[in-house]
Amino acid sequence: MDKLQISGGVALRGEIAISGAKNAALPLLCAALLTREPVTFTHVPHLNDIGTMLRLLEQMGVKVAREAGKVGAGDTVTLDASALDNLLAPYELVKTMRAAILVLGPLVARAGEAKVSLPGGCAIGARPVDQHIKGLTAMGAEISVEHGYVHAQATRLKGARIFTDMVTVTGTENLMMAACLGAGETIIENAAREPEVVDLATCLNAMGARVSGAGSDVIRIQGVDALHGATHRVMPDRIETGTYLCAAAATGGDVRLTGTSSAYLDAVIDKLMDTGCEITAERDAIRLKAPARLNAVSIRTAPYPAFPTDMQAQFMAINAVADGTAVIRETIFENRFMHAVELIRLGADIKIDGNTAFVKGVAELQGATVMATDLRASASLVIAGLVAQGETVIERIYHLDRGYEALDQKLIALGARVARLK
Ligand code: UD1
Question: Which end of the chain is more exposed for a tag (fewer CB within 10 A), N or C?
């Protein structure tokens, strides 16, 4: 299993290109299930989760053509779902990537049936899919949950008014996709406002759908009889962007990230400015210059546009070496502090009380061997390793390969001393 070896203490400097967003690309690829015509996506990040999703779609009968591009430029992927012959998402794939649940809505809408494994628990919490099921049921799908699978059937979905009990990103995306082929109007209230939802709506509309309100908490979808092919460029990854900004901030660096926008990152950029970093937003780039020592900043995670849970772990790492004490409250997932114990092994001073972490900045971290537990936890360990004195080895970096394109190459381009050990 690959490991990442980091010799810490180098301030990151230079310029790298940000990749396409994993969390936008995954639902977008599923949207291709909604039409018989080919759909082409550009700027698709080269990630393990994308490979898993393409394998899943292929198993369903989707023809996949993938043209590899340069790092940052992304791949071009064309999907042809004209013939769907297997409406099943098996446990083996869903357990490795929960986003596989995103095939449920498009399949039942287009093919009238879907059988998708329940994702079950994962390292960061229970993460149920009851809202996806509730919404599809309101649209007239017959749904049973048997032997660990959600089995949905419908002759044709119909428009419905759906109020989700909590803000759910993939839930909103699943229901929005399903409603595109329903009869009549669907209204999703308490919808997720994440930029990835907007990117999906833009693509669906390019395919002939009639979606309005994406980006607000009420999304209206007028169902149409069929969608057609389109070409869509995947939006930049705001979490990858935020992660490199944090890595630069923690190391006292000066980096310019291209092909990305500060527009999706207001909450994160605000907090980075509070740490004392200087940030310049350009039209398609962001530059960050860090002071020698950061101020601690407290954060509270919440749905977009508030501070993203996917940036919580990285901010724990930067607070570990900042001046002062930060209070970090996680309100989205119930078990998302697993990086804390690993950061403590590197010398961080962190106390956990339920969903709140108290992080008291220390003068320096020391390198050690640590274990990655989930995607963003791994990113926080990379940041900590980059600032720690001496050598840090991060085990189980397959988590990082799920969500960060060419992480080691990008860090090396910024001057970090990083090696992938086989
Ligand atoms: C998406 C992102 C993930 C991010 C998360 C929160 C993708 C592929 N993944 O995950 O990176 O961390 O949003 O921003 O886009 N919930 C229920 N019932 C449901 C659905 C959700 O109880 O039917 C709960 C979850 O357990 C969680 C909260 O709602 O506590 C938010 O989850 P959700 O927004 O659905 O996360 P994902 O869409 O899985």
Answer: C
Choose the residue to mutate in 52, 168, 193, 402 for probing ligand 1, maximizing ligand atoms within 8 Å of C-beta. 168
Give CA–CA dist 32/228, Å, rounded.
Answer: 9
Query: pLDDT tens digits, residue range 165-224?
Result: 999 999 999 999 999 999 999 999 999 999 999 999 999 999 999 999 999 999 999 999
Instruction: Please report the DSSP string for 243-280 in residue order.
Output: HHHHHHHHTT-EEEEES--GGG-HHHHHHHHHTT-EEE
Cα–ligand 1 centroid distance for 192 (angstroms)? 10
- In angstroms, the CA 319 to CA 179 distance is 43
- 396 band by pLDDT with thresholds 50, 70 and 90: confident
Tell me how crowded residue 88 is: count the other CB atoms within 10 A of its CB.
Answer: 17
Which is the closest atom of ligand 1 to the Cα of 132? 23
CA atoms of 60 and 55, how far apart (whole Å): 9
Q: 356: buried, middle or exposed (CB in 10 Å: 19+, 13-18, 0-12)?
A: middle
